[in-house]
Design goal:
Number of strands: 2
CATH topology of the largest domain: 434 Repressor (Amino-terminal Domain)
Strand order of the largest sheet: 1-2
Bound molecules: S-adenosylmethionine
Structural class: mainly alpha
CATH superfamily of the largest domain: lambda repressor-like DNA-binding domains
Distance between the termini: 50 Å
Shape: elongated
Strand content: under 5%
Length: 236
């Protein structure tokens, strides 16, 4: 459904103007203007700006009619998706390039790897060798205990081979990670991804100094990154 042509014709007629008069005054081709009014052609933005000037109107008012007609045209092709697509378009306008990572995190199912945690001294790259060695040396074992489990990469690798796997670590944060990765339970992917996206796009220049940046900034981590780590850590 196109309304812009009819709207333009109604405006002209209410002002008592002939099509030819408007065409001359606006410097628009007469045939083109007639086709626009009859709904046979969609007007360009520049044509609407000229007409708005002739009619003494805010050009935004007319351009908005044009854009909404175009949206309607698309909605007729995809009637079941229009409303949702408008919301998505709004998100795209709000987030710009960031939308892509938001989309990938929120809607495309990707496993979040245990090893995606950066941990000094983690054995992720050695786990195959560690398991081969232990299984060769202790073929009768039924349980496995990872005393300083850290990321949990080693204990995680042992799960398929043993009846019982114990994760042990001093840090409470690590216990939470083990529960997150290895215990059964409900979780909300969208909620998690939204939080993740927010953290990934936090500008560390806007953050205050914190425990982590004061103690570790410029050592293992770049100063700005350490502020971000401290912020996320405290925020969680
Ligand atoms: C180098 S990391 C372990 C790396 C681990 N194998 C991995 O692949 O991720 C050392 C871990 O030992 C933990 N830890 C240190 N002292 C401990 C203690 N006395 N008891 C239990 N865990 C301890 C630390 O919290 C840290 O997570």
């Amino acid at each position: 459904m196109h309304t812009i042509g009819k709207i333009l014709k109604t405006i002209r007629e209410e002002r008592g103007l002939q099509l030819r008069q408007v065409a001359i005054e606006s410097n628009i081709d007469l045939t083109l203007l007639s086709r626009v009014e009859n709904g046979k052609r969609m007007p360009s933005e520049s044509l609407l700006i000229k007409l708005a000037e002739t009619y003494g109107l805010d050009s935004n008012l007319l351009v908005l009619q044009l854009v909404s007609d175009k949206i309607l045209e698309i909605s007729e092709q995809y009637p079941d998706h229009t409303i949702e697509a408008l919301k998505v378009a709004q998100e795209k306008a709000r987030l710009g390039e960031r939308y892509i990572s938001f989309f990938m995190n929120s809607f495309i199912s990707r496993p979040i790897g245990l090893e995606s945690r950066r941990y000094i001294g983690n054995k992720t790259k050695l786990t195959d060798w560690i398991m081969e060695t232990i299984r060769r040396e202790c073929p009768e074992a039924h349980s496995f205990c990872d005393i300083f489990a850290g990321t949990g990469a080693v204990a995680g690798k042992a799960i398929p081979y043993y009846d019982q796997v114990i994760f042990n670590d001093l840090l409470c944060a690590n216990r939470v990670i083990y529960q997150g990765f290895f215990e059964k339970g409900e979780w909300n992917r969208d909620k998690l991804c939204t939080i993740l996206d927010e953290y990934n796009h936090t500008d560390y220049n806007s953050l205050e100094d914190n425990y982590f940046s004061i103690n570790f900034g410029g050592k293992y981590f770049d100063y700005g990154v350490s502020k971000l780590i401290g912020y996320v850590r405290q925020n969680i």
